[in-house]
Amino acid sequence: MFERFDKYARRAVARARHEAVRTGQDHIGCEHLLLGIFAEQGQAAQAMTAAGLEISALRTHLHGGTTSAADPLDAEALASLGIDLDAVRRATDAAFGPGALDRAGGARPVRLRQAFGPSFTPEARKTVELALRTTVRMKQPSISTGHILAGIIDQGHNAGLDLLAAAGADAAALRADVIRRLTDAA
């Protein structure tokens, strides 16, 4: 099914995998997909930005109000120096592949699960299914990050929606905005 994803959606899934591995998770959940699509260009990131969301704040909410202990780079400290860590990650990932910035920190022990990569949770698989349904219903040629965001929201309950709620986002308004953007782009 991933052949139906546009390049940004494919990269978003790779980023979601990276988010999961970076934080020591053995699964890719909707919360990781949400961070992955926000880090990519496209209708989802545009809608989330328009809703006043910030990726660093979502990461903080995901980690219970603290910066991830697994991330040795302090986004807030770098921002105080005028460095946007997310922009650095995007540029590094584009040049050297997903996760390159974290790999530069040195060799890490590889667990068997990580050697094959984390698997999708049932909710994340459902997100992909719902994204495909939205794509077909809208008669669009490929699944984009906007379709993935709609899939996260359409489930009704998952860790991605919990993360949006913790950040104060109105999921219904966010979905309406991303669907409008998808329609306008068609």
Structural class: mainly alpha
Radius of gyration (Å) = 16 Å
CATH architecture: Orthogonal Bundle
> Main β-sheet, in a few words?
2 strands, parallel
Spatial shape: globular
Low-confidence region ranges: 106-115
Question: What share of the residues lie within helices?
Answer: 55-70%
CATH fold naming: Double Clp-N motif
Could you give a short description of this structure?
This protein is mostly helical and 186 residues long.
Structure, described:
- It is built from 12 helices and 2 strands.
- The chain has 186 residues and is mostly helical.
- The chain has one domain: Double Clp-N motif (Orthogonal Bundle), CATH 1.10.1780.10.
- The longest helix has 16 residues, at 7-22.
- The model is unreliable at 106-115 (pLDDT under 50).
How does the SSE layout of this entry go?
Blueprint: H1 7-22, E1 27-28, H2 30-38, H3 43-50, H4 55-62, H5 75-80, H6 85-96, H7 100-103, H8 112-116, E2 119-120, H9 122-137, H10 145-154, H11 159-166, H12 171-185
Parallel strand pairs: 1-2
Helix pairs in contact: 1-2, 2-10, 2-11, 3-10, 3-12, 9-10, 10-12
List the main descriptive attributes of the protein structure presented here:
Double Clp-N motif, single chain, 2 strands, 186 residues, 12 helices, two-stranded parallel ribbon, mainly alpha
